[in-house]
UniProtKB/TrEMBL annotation:
GO molecular function: glucose-6-phosphate isomerase activity
Predominant subcellular localization, coarse grouping: cytoplasm
PANTHER family: GLUCOSE-6-PHOSPHATE ISOMERASE
Keyword Kinase (UniProt): no
Keywords: Cytoplasm, Gluconeogenesis, Glycolysis, Isomerase
Catalytic reaction annotation: alpha-D-glucose 6-phosphate = beta-D-fructose 6-phosphate
Annotated compartments: Cytoplasm
InterPro entries named in the record: G6P_Isomerase, G6P_Isomerase_C, Phosphoglucose_isomerase_CS, SIS_dom_sf, SIS_PGI_1, SIS_PGI_2
Family: Belongs to the GPI family.
PROSITE patterns: P_GLUCOSE_ISOMERASE_1, P_GLUCOSE_ISOMERASE_2, P_GLUCOSE_ISOMERASE_3
Lineage, uppermost ranks: Bacteria, Bacillati, Actinomycetota, Actinomycetes, Micrococcales
First-level EC class: isomerase
Domain of life: Bacteria
Name of this protein: Glucose-6-phosphate isomerase
Length: 556
């Protein structure tokens, strides 16, 4: 798809939004006081998620103008193009079809893209992953000594790690007893060394997860893991014994099944996917095999159903009630009109502790771009830094800056009503106490505390200014019944589509990631110098050369 992006800054909606912003004085206290229907009008149901947008710095006019902007830049058309399988990943000339990964079996009309029966292929791989997961979970799959698997070690990085580890952590209550999954990602050898510590090789299964099967970190870690396995098992230095150990203790997930075979993993033990699944959009593909083993195929299918429910909402709900659309547009409002540089995601659910890290790749690898999909420079600011930590820990660390700093930091608060562990402290429901913080924080951020209110507490006049909270700090509250596989899928899909909306408004290809290539290439070029090659060291720029020389002098 090579159509030109519509430059959002030239639209009449953009112009109107600029004018609107210049006359708007955010006043959440006043807006709520004057408009008893605001909370209800700006709260939405999205599958199992209740999403309250009312504490954002918008009026009805802002929302209407943002929706007009979406219309003028063609968000809906671009979405339909994506769903049809057009090559909206322009710089890689690929379709973008992560939504196809979660279409239910038998969905009609069938999705055929570039001559490929996508639905058939997706269901085929899903069935293979499910059958394998069942074998591992039931103990039918055994290692070389005939013992069942107790630990799965997923080796992957970026999208081949962040999704599975985040989801595994989030869905811990669904993990089968007696099974554990560990995740190795970093090429720092510490990572592998620590993750295999204490493992019994006879009950360990490695999953090498790499879309390209060419990623230096993953292949290096896979070789280290293979060496560890042979050594720990005491495998004789004999090809067939070594192959047998690999066959029983290694499987792979990749789009490059030829490279999987070259590594020594039997293609029968490899699970494929396709180039139209971006790494950061792949947790719901075979990349989620470790998760499927841990929680089981049924729960994995529930996870996919959660994604699909949000896909359906995004594709079919009218714009005024379309939650991903509205949230994506709010982000545009904050970045391009109110000057926000960052966006906090604050789960009030400890099991979601890796969700902000997951979202960093999803959002920042997708929208950290300076050129549009037609190669022209962007005409406005793109992308924001996503970050966060679970509450309440964050409250005791960085919330000070969100409450009283000079920067505008829109924040999403995510909570579930029913905890997996409903503990009591005497008579006190501890989770309810926890959620009191979730409710109180957005209230404090929105409405603040005036100088008069501070004085009324008897505060010494000299410190009144320090205790004033300005309020008008925007938040979105997301509340789900409980953290089920489906709810997790819904949350992920929500943020995927928010990211998509922003990318379309900015006219960028949210599905390539050329920005990570240069560093990878230079690491390979610098490697000989770091290994002590004098000519390679000489070829470096002065700063890099002196740093490497220092490193070499520090080596024991
Ligand atoms: O370096 C960026 C990246 O290409 C990500 O987009 C991707 O998720 C990660 O590397 C891992 O890639 P692969 O799955 O091919 O090993």
């Amino acid at each position: 798809m090579s159509t030109q992006p519509i430059d959002a800054t030239t639209t009449s909606a953009w112009q109107a939004l600029s004018e609107h912003e210049s006359t708007l004085t955010p006043d959440l206290r006043g807006w709520f006081a004057a408009d008893p229907g605001r909370a209800e009008r700006l709260s939405f149901e999205l599958a199992d998620l209740h999403v309250d947008l009312s504490k954002n710095l918008v009026t009805d006019e802002t929302v209407a103008l943002l929706l007009r902007l979406a219309d003028e830049v063609g968000v809906a058309d671009r979405l339909q193009a994506m769903l049809r399988g057009e090559h909206i990943n322009v710089t890689e000339d690929r379709a973008v079809l992560h939504t196809a990964l979660r279409r239910p079996a038998g969905a009609r009309p069938a999705l055929v893209v570039d001559g490929q029966d996508v639905d058939h292929d997706v269901q085929e791989v899903l069935a293979k992953v499910a059958a394998f997961a069942d074998k591992v979970r039931s103990g039918e799959w055994t290692g070389v000594t005939g013992k069942r698997v107790a630990t799965v070690v997923n080796i992957g990085i970026g999208g081949s790690d962040l999704g599975p580890v985040m989801a595994y952590e989030a869905l811990k209550p669904y993990v089968q007893d007696g099974l554990e999954v560990r995740f190795v990602s970093n090429i720092d050898p510490t990572d592998l060394a620590e993750k295999v510590k204490g493992l019994d090789p006879t009950t360990t299964l490695f999953i090498v997860a790499s879309k390209t099967f060419g990623t230096l970190e993953t292949l290096t870690n896979a070789r280290l893991a293979r060496d560890w396995l042979w050594e720990q098992l005491g495998t004789p230095d004999d090809e067939s014994a070594r192959n047998e150990a690999v066959a029983k203790h290694f499987v792979a997930v990749s789009t490059a099944l030829d490279k999987v075979a070259a590594f020594g993993i039997d293609p029968a033990n490899a699970f494929g996917f396709w180039d139209w699944v971006g790494g950061r959009y792949s947790v719901d593909s075979a990349i989620g095999t470790s998760l499927a083993i841990a929680i089981g195929p049924d729960a994995f299918r529930d996870f996919l159903a959660g994604f699909h429910a949000v896909d359906e909402h995004f594709a079919t709900t009218p714009a005024e009630r379309n939650v991903p659309l509205l949230m994506g547009l709010l982000n545009v409002w904050y970045v391009n009109f109110l000057g926000a540089h960052t966006h906090a995601v604050l789960p009030y659910a400890q099991y979601l502790h890796r969700f902000p890290a997951y979202l960093q790749q999803l959002t920042m690898e997708s929208n950290g771009k300076s050129v549009r999909w037609d190669g022209e420079a962007v005409t406005t600011t793109t992308g924001e830094v996503f970050w966060g930590e679970p509450g309440t820990n964050g409250q005791h660390a960085f919330y000070q800056l969100i409450h009283q700093g000079t920067r505008l930091i829109p924040a999403d608060f995510i909570a579930v009503a029913n905890p997996a562990h409903p503990l009591k402290d005497g008579d006190v429901d501890v989770h309810a106490l926890f959620l009191a913080n979730y409710f109180a924080q957005t209230k404090a951020l929105a409405f603040g505390k005036t100088a008069d209110e501070v004085r009324a507490e008897g505060t010494d006049e000299a410190i009144v200014p320090a205790r004033v909270f300005s309020g008008n700090r925007p938040t979105t509250s997301i509340l789900a019944p409980s953290l089920t596989p489906s709810v997790l899928g819904q949350l992920i899909a929500l943020y995927e589509h928010i990211t998509f909306v922003q990318g379309v408004v900015w006219g960028i290809d949210s599905f390539d990631q050329w920005g990570v290539e240069l560093g990878k290439k230079l690491a390979l070029e610098v490697a000989p110098a770091v290994q002590g090659d004098a000519t390679a060291l000489d070829a470096q720029d002065p700063s890099t050369k002196s740093l490497i020389a220092k490193y070499l002098s520090l080596r024991a």
